[in-house]
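User: Quick one: structure for sequence A, then sequence B.

Assistant: Sequence A:
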Amino acid sequence: MIYCVEDDKNIRDLVVYALNSGGFEAEGFADAESFYARLGQGKPELILLDIMLPGEDGMQVLERLRAKSETAGIPVIMLTARGAEYDKVRGLDLGADDYVVKPFGVMELLARIRALLRRAGNGQMAEEQRLSIAGILLYPDRHQCFADEKEVELTFKEFELLQYLMENKGLVLSRDKLLRAVWGYDFEGETRTVDVHIGNLRQKLGEQGNAIETIRGVGYRIGEAK
């Protein structure tokens, strides 16, 4: 079960719907008071917590959660319109596990939730996932990428795209399929987005980027570097 504490009804309903559709069970709460009432009945696997709440704000809620032994270990992702570095640092210092700034993509949020739940491993560190192809090493849980043993800084979407390619090693993936899998939509003309991100990946990966092959008229495939 995932609890979403968000005072904006439209956002709360969207997140809860996306979670329920994505294979999770989720409940939404408009304020700290209703959240605490539900928390007394059962602990969730993860909490999505907005900062700007009426009454007790998200930072205060987070601080209270981390101060109690029975709730200290529950993973928390902060959802907020605030993008200032100070707010991020404060939230992380108080014990937040991740931080997503509005407006955010639903697919990105779901990916972050899955990664955090994998890391949490019911209170213990789960076995770390690792993908390795042609000198490219990917750690999805840590969101780290290495090419020829050197760390490569990738954007969130570049990382997701590379991970999907590596998880489907040797398979020819059409631009439309990549678009749906990574971006979550399928609009005519948007396949150019895939090409741009592939180009960025190849450049950042250097010689190892040659492992990403262009299949003319179809899409892309990852194999051994040439």
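Sequence B:
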Amino acid sequence: MTEKRRQQLKDFFNLYAERFNSALRGEGADIEGTAAAFADCLIAASPQGVNCGSDNEDFRKAMSQGYAFYRIIGVTAMDILSAESTLLDDLHEMTRILWRFRYTRKDLAEGSVDFENIYFTQSKNNETKIFAYITGDEQAALREKGLI
């Protein structure tokens, strides 16, 4: 992978994380900016199954509800601990991101949860878009920490 392309992916995911953190801090969610990080058609896989979605108004509403959910349960930040990108071909990449979300529970106990997501992106015309991602069992991790 060229250094320029590697830097482009790093910048892309850092901006994605910053938008998420801005929403968690209550500074306003950049729903349009975050939605622009995704392709018009999207595949999401998790232990709950595989879902197909579209970058539409329902997607934006779900994103807004997701940010609100994380704030309600006490998530205060989403940090990228590491990101490893693999070039698949001239247009596509796979990036494994190790995330840490920090939280403060209602009983004021603080902690964090580390988890990995795998993102598939397409980069063309100087623009990167997520077209698929794979997540672990986030709900189980939230229950284990007493957040839900």
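The CA atoms of residues 86 and 134 lie 15 Å apart. The domain at 3-144 is CATH 3.10.450.50 (Nuclear Transport Factor 2; Chain: A,).

User: Thanks, that's what I needed.
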